[in-house]
Amino acid sequence: MFERFTQRARTAVQNAHEEANALGHRTVGTEHLVLAMFTTGGIAADVLQACAVEREGFVATLTGTDDAAALRSIGIDLDAVRSSVEQTFGPGALEQAELPRRGGFLFRRSKLPNRFGNDAKKALELSLRVALSMKHNYIGTEHLLLGILREERGTGGRLLREQGMSYDRTMELVKAALRNVA
């Protein structure tokens, strides 16, 4: 199947491994494929941009960095908590501590071996089906994006749907982009 992938789609799949590693995840999921599309470029990146889906917002939703807003919604003022902790334990008490050193070298987490999760495998399979249904003999980033949206259990597709993307609308945008390229 990978022989049908365009160079850009192959790069996206490779970059998905790096995205999973950067987040400390052992498996590559559809969310990592989406993250890779932002940096790989191509039709998928253009469609994500047209749908107002931005990398920073996607990462924030994925990693839960919007926790401060969630805490505020239940009456917890994170700034007040930070101030109180720093008054008691000193400035910077909540900052991440330096990793321990081993043999004079800073110890870092080694690159994690990661495999494709079931959702990513299914999305890759669906991207092939999408390409064939469009009568394309290649799989591009646009097919990957559509495969992710069609895969119902993956985090990547769920987060995209929560941001207003749908398979049908994305297909329309992909077809329009392909017409503009031709």
TrEMBL record:
Keywords: Repeat. Residues 2-181 form the Clp R domain. The keyword Cell inner membrane does not apply. It comes from the Bacteria. PANTHER family: ATP-DEPENDENT CLP PROTEASE ATP-BINDING SUBUNIT CLPT1, CHLOROPLASTIC, CLP DOMAIN SUPERFAMILY PROTEIN. This is Clp R domain-containing protein.
